[in-house]
From TrEMBL:
<dbReference type="GO" id="GO:0016020">
    <property type="term" value="C:membrane"/>
</dbReference>
<keyword id="KW-1133">Transmembrane helix</keyword>
<keyword id="KW-0472">Membrane</keyword>
<dbReference type="InterPro" id="IPR007237">
    <property type="entry name" value="CD20-like"/>
</dbReference>
<feature type="transmembrane region" description="Helical">
    <location>
        <begin position="31"/>
        <end position="53"/>
    </location>
</feature>
<protein>
    <submittedName>
        <fullName>Uncharacterized protein</fullName>
    </submittedName>
</protein>
<keyword id="KW-0812">Transmembrane</keyword>
<feature type="transmembrane region" description="Helical">
    <location>
        <begin position="59"/>
        <end position="82"/>
    </location>
</feature>
<feature type="transmembrane region" description="Helical">
    <location>
        <begin position="89"/>
        <end position="110"/>
    </location>
</feature>
<feature type="transmembrane region" description="Helical">
    <location>
        <begin position="130"/>
        <end position="149"/>
    </location>
</feature>
<dbReference type="Pfam" id="PF04103">
    <property type="entry name" value="CD20"/>
</dbReference>
Length: 161
């Protein structure tokens, strides 16, 4: 018996899609974490402006801790959100997040010192400083999780390359 000249095509096997760069990291939605970083960075920056204009000179206001951390978190959030479009930003994003984590750690310590040595009679300043510290601690947690994910992805891409 002869084989037919024309064979009917039947799509039974699913061809897997090509893996995108940073596939494992992008499944964890770093863009959503980046948006949270941007929003809380803007919040910290705004509260830092309020503290700088209304409070007396303290260690955190002299060093402009809320302004610096707010700006750094906003930049870090923008970079994290852009990872989907530009995967080559991963090493830069890791470096900026490490810097944010260090500055925020110092900022939390300085804000804690300010809160412990502050004047309890000025109630609104204590509330604003406590709010800045809470949002900064939230940012530290988000940045630590993002750094863990990014470091894992960076290590896995270096092993395959």
């Amino acid at each position: 018996m002869r084989k037919p000249l024309i064979k009917q095509y039947c799509a039974t096997d699913v061809v897997p899609a090509k893996m995108q760069p940073l596939h494992n990291l992008l499944q964890k939605q770093p863009a959503a974490m980046g948006v949270v970083q941007m929003v809380s960075g803007i919040t910290i920056f705004g509260l830092g402006v309020v503290l700088a204009t209304t409070s007396p000179l303290t260690l955190a206001t002299i060093l402009r801790v809320p302004l610096l951390t707010g700006l750094l978190f906003f930049i870090s959030g923008v970079l994290s959100a852009l990872l989907h479009k530009f995967p080559r930003l991963l090493p830069i994003c890791v470096a900026v997040n490490i810097g944010c984590l260090c500055v925020a750690g110092v900022g939390v310590v300085l804000l804690t010192i300010d809160l412990s040595s502050g004047n309890p009679n000025v109630n609104h300043q204590v509330k604003v400083k406590a709010l800045v510290m809470c949002v900064t601690v939230l940012e530290v947690c988000i940045t630590a999780v993002l750094l863990f994910w990014m470091h894992r992805e960076l290590r896995s891409t270096n092993k395959t390359a």
